[in-house]
Write a structure and sequence with these properties.
Largest sheet: 5 strands, antiparallel
Radius of gyration: 28 Å
Shape: elongated
Order of helices and strands: HHHHEEEEEHHHHHH
Number of helices: 10
Strand content: 15-25%
Strand order of the largest sheet: 1-2-3-4-5
Number of domains: 2
Structural class: alpha+beta
Distance between the termini: 20 Å
Amino acid sequence: MKIIHRYIFRSVLFSSLAAVGLFVFLLLAGNILKDIIGLLMTGRLNLQMFLQLMLLLIPYVISYALPLGILTGLLMALGRLSAHQEVVALKSVGVSIFHIATPVITIALLGVGLSALINCYYAPEAKMRYRNVLANTVRQSPLSFVAPKTFIHEFTGYVLYVGEKSGNTLKDFWIWELDNNYNAIKLLRAKEGKFNYDAKGDALVLTLVEGFSEMRSARNPNDLQSIRPTVSFREARLRLPLDRLLGSKSKYVSLSILNINQLLDRKEMLAQKISQLEKDADLGERKIKIAEKIKVQMQIQKNLAMAFSVLSLTLIGIPLGIKVSRKETYANLGLALTLAMGYYFLIIIVGWLEKAPQLRPDIIIWIPNLVFQSIGIWLIFRANK
């Protein structure tokens, strides 16, 4: 029996490692294309900074690639066993589905431990460092974010264009101010422009020299007849806040970038405040703090629930992998993605309840795991008959 367990363990393990590597590559490429490849291509990031940001993305994408990879790996391995009639041969000599599933579940439990470690420590810290590195790149070198002859849309409410970049001076500078419907309501054009970073206000201060401004009606910006006469200026200044682009430097910190120790400390702090407010009979403020505490608890439980998704998807994947009886990679990959999308869809639905703390979303977040594990155990017993 040990020989059979080692054989199945190796088959599933090697397939899972290959699948995890594939999903890490795909998710990493997707995040790079979405966030930083444009900055590299336009010269806003140097190669060293690009590689640093790419490495910081790896722990974050592993938290999603690990459940998908292990599920795909076991489907591929068990599919090959079934296609080669090895599962039938094992059953014929009295080996039950439970014995076949034992090494697979062992891999899943190891995956749960690794995923919990990544979700609770490494992924949040990597995400925080990723944001800080990207933010500091712009804050320390504002001009790195400006590429000549390129329309810059990153600043909410503005579109920038620079004809030429010479040292710290930007020539032929255009900037459009947009309304909520993305219609241009103001145009500033200048012969030259310079950027400076205001650390106190966390904003880029744009100084324009020798230019003119053009205003449109805020009610009907598309009415060209309502354009006001152009106004020339020798110097004008404009502040571009960086909080929406890079994340605010305020005291509020997103819970998703806090590790488990920081979340537990915040939970304890909120519990003490709630206890004090109960003594002071401040019910309104106490209700707000209770809601904040539940959000912290939900983030903690979400990190752990996502780790247990490895086991949930494994339990439901074992009987399906045996039943599919296919060795084709695409069939198993498609089945894995379908199962994973179903699980993550349930997680997203539960996440919508974050604004309704009275429903205790920090407890409901475990329902997708309970559903998938229950179905998986039922299918395993059924396959064993």
